[in-house]
Amino acid sequence: MYAVGHLALGYITGKASSRILKTDIDVPLVFALSILPDIDLLIPRLPHRGPTHSIIATILIFLPILAIYRRRSIPYLLATLQHSLLGDFLTGGAQLMWPISPDWYGIDIALRSSTNITMEVTAFAASLTLMIVTGDLKGLLKPQRSNLLLTIPLAAFTVQLTGIYSIPAELAIPQTTYLILFSASILLGIRRFLSTTRHARASVEAAGSKAR
Question: Taking the complete model, does pTM exceed 0.70, yes or no?
Answer without folding.
Answer: yes
